[in-house]
Design brief:
about 300 residues, mainly alpha, Vanadium-containing Chloroperoxidase, domain 1, 12 helices
Length: about 300
């Protein structure tokens, strides 16, 4: 594949404008919707014509694949196989709502009384935002272009797609649920004001944007995409899930979210990540023409590694 450099970076710029807004409001596999595991899980949704010896992606995928992403998530989430998962999510969220006031108190107290925890919470929550995800996408895309590494370029584009699909869905749910965030709560558990007036929402978003968490949802989606594109890198999931757990703690400490905002967010993020990365299994793996490759590296701190194949 020879993608147009200018087109990709225009896409990243446009995505940044949307994602900063979408994400600024902001073991997970225990409550996931039932996705079929065979290689043609999404073939009914995304018909694949004979594309052997072609690439699995183009520069405009993060935009043009969105309708299919939404359809695939709805098709799988509301299938008969997902009834138990939906019931489990509902029960878990309800239980957490009933104890939200008690569980959030120690986090909020520490945040208010400890300057170190106050600063740590602000720093760690940044890693769940759209800005950081776009930096990751740019890194994969940029290195992929420089080294002619198709997998890295595909991963960068799929990160953008995951951020957009998840962010749009979460924003829609926030506008439907209208739940108070802890910092603006007028009730011990945060009131739900379904379908708030759009003007009122814009004037005081903290009164309505809590449920579900955009930071956690998009982070799970991005992590799933990266892990599925690099299945041989075994540490990605455990390190990623641990980091997202810390992001959740920071969001709770800052009063941006209740613990009950997270179960649905995790499920949505994981589903979108699987829908997007699931397309990789539909065609034959392409051969990389370059001897260079890029991969996530944690051995010497979080970053990227390079390999040259002789």
């Amino acid at each position: 594949m020879k993608p147009k450099l200018r087109a990709i970076y225009i896409l990243f710029f446009i995505s940044t404008v949307f994602l900063v807004k979408l994400s600024a409001q902001e073991d997970p596999t225990l409550f996931l919707f039932q996705l079929e595991d065979h290689p043609h899980s999404f073939q009914e949704v995304q018909p694949i014509l004979k594309i052997e010896n072609t690439n699995t992606f183009t520069w405009h995928d993060p935009i043009t694949k969105l309708p299919n992403d939404f359809y695939s998530l709805g098709k799988n989430a509301f299938s008969a196989n997902s009834i138990n998962t939906i019931a489990g999510l509902t029960i878990l969220t309800g239980l957490l709502i009933s104890i939200d006031h008690e569980t959030i108190k120690p986090f909020r107290t520490s945040y208010k009384n400890s300057p170190a925890i106050h600063q740590w919470s602000k720093n760690i929550s940044w890693f769940g935002g759209g800005e950081f995800h776009l930096i990751m996408a740019s890194a994969f895309g940029g290195f992929g272009l420089a080294l002619n590494d198709n997998r890295a370029m595909r991963t960068g584009l799929q990160i953008v797609e995951a951020e957009l699909a998840t962010g749009i869905t979460v924003q829609l749910l926030k506008h439907i649920s209208g739940r108070e965030s802890p910092q603006s709560a007028s009730n011990f558990h945060g009131l739900f004001r379904p379908f708030p007036n759009l003007k009122a929402y814009q004037q005081d978003e903290t009164k309505y944007y809590s449920f579900p968490s955009g930071h956690v949802s998009t982070s799970i989606a991005v992590l799933t995409v990266i892990a599925d594109n690099y299945p041989e890198v075994s540490w990605i999931r455990p390190v990623g899930y641990s980091a997202i757990g810390l992001i959740g703690v920071g969001l709770v400490a800052r009063g941006w979210h209740w613990l009950s905002d997270f179960p649905l967010a995790v499920a949505i993020g994981y589903m979108f990540g699987k829908v997007i990365s699931g397309r990789n299994n539909l065609i034959q793996k392409e051969n990389d023409n370059s001897s260079w490759s890029i991969y996530p590296d944690y051995n010497n701190g979080m970053g990227f590694g390079f390999a040259y194949h002789f």
